[in-house]
Amino acid sequence: MRATVIHAPHDIRVEEVPDPAIQQPTDVVLRVLRACICGSDLWAYRGESARKPGQRIGHEFLGVVEEAGPGVNGFAVGDLVVAPFVWSDGTCTYCAEGLTTSCTQGGFWGSVGSDGGQGEAVRVPFADGTLVKLPAAAASDDRLLTALLALSDVLGTGHHAALGAGVKPGSTVAVVGDGAVGLCGVMAAKRLGAERIIALGRHRSRTDIALAFGATDIVAERGEAALAAVRELTRGEGAHGVIEAVGTEQSMRTAIDIVRDGGSIGYVGVPHGSATGLDLDAMFDRNIALRGGVAPVRTYIPELLPDVLDGTLDPSPVFDLAVGLDQVPGGYKAMDERTALKVIITP
Amino acid sequence: MRATVIHAPHDIRVEEVPDPAIQQPTDVVLRVLRACICGSDLWAYRGESARKPGQRIGHEFLGVVEEAGPGVNGFAVGDLVVAPFVWSDGTCTYCAEGLTTSCTQGGFWGSVGSDGGQGEAVRVPFADGTLVKLPAAAASDDRLLTALLALSDVLGTGHHAALGAGVKPGSTVAVVGDGAVGLCGVMAAKRLGAERIIALGRHRSRTDIALAFGATDIVAERGEAALAAVRELTRGEGAHGVIEAVGTEQSMRTAIDIVRDGGSIGYVGVPHGSATGLDLDAMFDRNIALRGGVAPVRTYIPELLPDVLDGTLDPSPVFDLAVGLDQVPGGYKAMDERTALKVIITP
Lengths: 347, 347
What we know:
Chains A, B: It comes from Streptomyces clavifer. The structure is a homodimer. Chain A is α/β, with parallel strands linked by helices.
């Protein structure tokens, strides 16, 4: 089959690789219908996260079960399913508590020795614990299929951020980061009842999506001016909760600046400098909490899925560029240069 | 009157200063019955927190109302009262929500221009918002008076840490720091229903208090060995919550090492290097939350007071050295050299 492989920073190729096969009784082989490129893939693309030459890449996908091991109980050949961005056994104490990202047998797609999502097929370990079934009819609804793909990462990650930010009915929330996760954070905050959602961003195409997703205010300023703008919108106090969906020193500084005393920062941006932006003295004096991390998306899919199926949530607008497998390297380039927000792949 | 003054690192003096007087209608002048020295005072004593020469010091005290301004409604001359370690107006939006440490008119005893607690008397701003009345009979019960003094800071701060660590019935909690706050954190965790309380410490006199306060296990090891010991006590997973009551790089590293994935660190140690110990990558991968900060003790006093009055909570053992006002400089030296755990002062 053909799959995306990373050889070095800025060297993404689509190559012939061995077909995946059942290795364990609990495995499934999945034919990928849709995959996509994540903002976090760009850290590898830019060389800021180490990868071994030849490693697979991509961790967001949905597709059809092509083969199921004898130990798989919940899925049959032909089922349409979505995969979260880590696999998990569904049975350990962490999985039982919903923290599937800490599964004792879990792992990350594209890690050494495992398939990545940006290819024609994927071997899925612990299929019963990992996958979630989708209605078969969705396979022929392109818009819905696109929306459902967001369940593999960005929608659940936005939800995790909103929970970390402590969003509840009536909250004022600010969102740092205008990428797909930040935008899904806007959507998740609205779903949890936030009354005021302040999206920070200066690119009209993105802030328009934020408004469509439920943002009530857009702050285009940066630095001190952004702080002043948020203060003006919040009686001088700041937002009850902030979603930090970038992971840089500057984004974390901004998050701390604009959160209200006693508030919470839901951080889901993979840390790339953000530790340096953590002003612990300020956090201490102002009782600011930091909650979040890698989102246990598998746990959130059953809760979010009905809202996606009935159209209450439609994250599909975050995908603004569609490519075939051959065009994946160009997709990385487009996201890296911010000419695309998020790239969807039809292998 | 006489009060404690800090002139330079390691230069603490007890001097004649102007008698406090009512300046605002909402002031009270309080005659101090008991005060004490805080672990956080040692940061100033050691020169690690800046102080202007001649600044007052001390922020924990209880006493008797000697004079009340015309705008004071809740207190009369002769009332026995305890003060939390910051004053607060009791009426702003933060006070209304219980975050009295963020009061828009609040302040810290011993800050420039205000009285410190380690003296004969204190001018208390916003007395109605700040002070809490105690039963008059307590004034003649030396043990009870000592226990009640802990409400001014360490008991409420331990409670704040336990809340930040997410303690609930059945929790396993680990406590980093064997000072008065850490020990009160043990007591607070037990009160909130923790089933297992692991106190880290190697000084028998302190770990004995931890055991008396409710610790179920003592870990005397440090570094890697401490981590291994906590893992062994927790099925290899770590504690659901950790109380970080020190504030150094090493203590924060230890807290992150020994907390279970998905757990929470309740941090109340004033940061002195602890930001450097925050391994955000590890926290992100393991979904570790950081919650806490300066404790809104005023809010907690009404909840904790009945338990202290009826003897359910008796934090008095944390005070292991009693001095008069003249001996305060020696009290600092004793705490700095760790020959005393916490010094109580009878002016």
